[in-house]
């Protein structure tokens, strides 16, 4: 692709992102966890459930791994296996605090200067499972340090998400093999 086409493509993506961010659905307005400990949050998490979106479509065995970058930001490595091709798909991004370092409000980017909200709204005291909301009602994740989650915790997270306005009929339960 020549430079002119590349510039036009990048411009179209940037304009599209601005328009989407302006017109996107009503934001989820919930409190994030307080007394957040990033060091406890680092490491590998298994995705238990999500609202599907383009990057994760048809993926199983989805994990997210968080580690520190030298600049103080957090390296985010998302990985999953395509259910039809069996090929592993990996995406590397970075996260930063959205505000106070003691709050579970982060912003994550997998594409240049464009960040999305990553709000840890519930987490167990040992940082073994968590409920994450995006910056609007289109994004939700349930994560665990293991490939499954306690049924009582799952029910608690689901009730909270429903009470916050999430349409749980769109929730996809992630296949975690092995």
Features:
single chain; 178 residues; alpha+beta; Lipocalin; 8-stranded antiparallel beta barrel; 3 helices; 9 strands; 21% helix
Number of domains: 1
Q: CATH topology, what is it called? A: Lipocalin
Extended strand count? 9
**Biggest sheet details:** 8 strands, antiparallel, barrel
- Sequence of secondary-structure elements: HHEEEEEEEEHE
In the CATH hierarchy, the architecture is Beta Barrel
Query: For the terminal residues, how far apart are their CA atoms?
Result: 43 Å
State the low-pLDDT regions, or none: 20-28
Shape: globular
Give me the secondary-structure category: alpha+beta
Can you put this structure into words, describing what you see?
The structure is a single chain. The protein has 178 residues and is of the alpha+beta class. The chain has a single domain (28-173), classed as Calycin beta-barrel core domain (Lipocalin, Beta Barrel), CATH 2.40.128. It is built from 3 helices and 9 strands; from the N terminus they run ααββββββββαβ. It has helices at residues 3-23, 38-41, 151-163, and strands at 43-51, 59-68, 74-82, 88-97, 105-111, 114-123, 129-133, 140-144, 171-173. It has an 8-stranded antiparallel β-barrel with strand order 1-2-3-4-5-6-7-8. β5 and β6 form a beta hairpin. The longest helix is centred in the N-terminal third of the chain and has 21 residues, at 3-23. The model is unreliable at 20-28 (pLDDT under 50). Residues 36-176 form the Lipocalin/cytosolic fatty-acid binding domain.
